[in-house]
Specification:
With 321 residues, this protein is mainly beta. It has one domain (21-319): Sandwich (Immunoglobulin-like). It contains 3 helices and 15 strands. The chain has helices spanning 26-34, 154-160, 312-319; strands at residues 46-51, 76-77, 82-83, 100-109, 114-123, 133-138, 166-170, 179-180, 195-202, 211-219, 222-224, 234-235, 243-252, 272-275, 290-294. The longest helix is centred in the N-terminal third of the chain and has 9 residues, at 26-34. The two termini are 20 Å apart. The relative contact order is 0.23.
């Protein structure tokens, strides 16, 4: 990528509805929507979760070239989102792609039972902390609160936070504690059994210069997350034609993070949060997450399987020679 991820067209107030019909049989989509628990937020949106076969999983190497086979309609970009923040914000209208543009994608694999993420971002000023990606996922689409409730004891509150849906914030310039489940007291979820990542940056994170970020990671999700005990937690088993709830938030800081002399203003809580839904309740209530359909493997796609047992990593390495 040699510039902003994409050009921004004229934005409507209504969130753009992704067209995933080119990948789905009409019957599968109707079935999936008929089994949805509730209409999530935005109510007229259904995104798609791309399926990888076991012999063509994305390699965590910061090279997104294998993701090029995914139809562009499945990527969420700056053209699809709204500014959703209760903080003082830098942007009050559309994103200026000369300042920031991005795309992110949900995908999955049946054998590993993992959700795989691809993320690409251009930013003309990358301040470091506070410019991260955060995602909340309700794997069994049960909805409802996943934050503590008034009147609970500390023990009850800790047990409820993140129990039926989980928020993870990925801080790509924080190599230590890069995956942060800030809702819970848990300290075991960042094991490679559950999550791992690689990212590549062009530019200098934490500076005021242009940066381009390329990131890949995977995550396990739970129907019942017990912050004290991974053995006592119930991992969700993903299947195609399922509906899940998901909200992906892209955070940005920019010019308003400077004082009048152009120096960093540490007192300014100036975040822009770009997401599909404007409802800030998506932080703790899964009723306000967007609907995404778990797709089957697209048999029309020519995955790179010409050599028996080969892998994306080996193929990419051979092409680079």
């Amino acid at each position: 990528m040699v510039g902003p991820v994409s050009a921004l067209g004229e934005r409507e107030e209504v969130v753009f509805v992704k067209k995933i019909s080119l990948l789905l049989a009409a019957g599968a989509l109707v079935f999936a929507l008929s089994t949805a628990v509730t209409a999530h937020d935005p109510p007229d949106f259904v995104g798609g979760v791309w399926a990888w076969p076991g012999n063509a999983l994305p390699v965590l190497d910061g090279d997104l070239s294998e993701w090029d086979i995914v139809p562009p309609e499945l990527w969420i970009t700056e053209q699809d989102v709204v500014n959703s923040s209760d903080r003082e914000t830098v942007y009050t209208g559309d994103i200026d792609v000369s300042s920031m543009s991005f795309r992110w994608l949900l995908s999955w694999n049946d054998e590993t039972n993992r959700i795989y993420f691809g993320y690409e971002r251009f930013d003309d000023k990358h301040w470091g902390g506070g410019e991260h990606y955060e995602g909340a996922l309700d794997a069994d689409h049960s909805g409802g609160t996943f934050w503590s409730s008034e009147g609970q004891s500390d023990e009850e509150a800790y047990r409820q936070r993140g129990r039926h849906a989980q928020i993870f914030g990925w801080h790509f310039d924080w190599e230590e504690n890069w995956s942060n489940n800030w809702m819970t007291q848990a300290d075991w979820y960042d094991d490679p059994l559950y999550t791992d990542h690689v990212y590549r940056v062009e530019g200098v994170p934490g500076s005021t210069g242009e940066t381009r970020l390329f990131a890949e990671w995977y995550q396990i999700y739970w129907d019942d997350f017990n912050w004290e005990d991974p053995e006592g937690s119930i991992v969700h088993e993903f299947e195609d034609d399922q509906i899940i709830g998901y909200a992906g938030h892209v955070y940005d800081k920019d010019d308003a993070y400077e004082d009048a002399e152009g120096n960093p203003n540490e007192d300014c809580n100036c975040h822009s949060r770009w997401t599909l839904s404007p409802n800030v309740e998506s932080f703790g209530n899964a009723d306000f997450l967007a609907d995404f359909l778990i797709l089957p493997i697209d048999d029309s796609v020519n995955f790179v399987t010409a050599v028996e047992g080969d892998s994306w990593g080996r193929i990419k390495a051979s092409l680079a020679k």
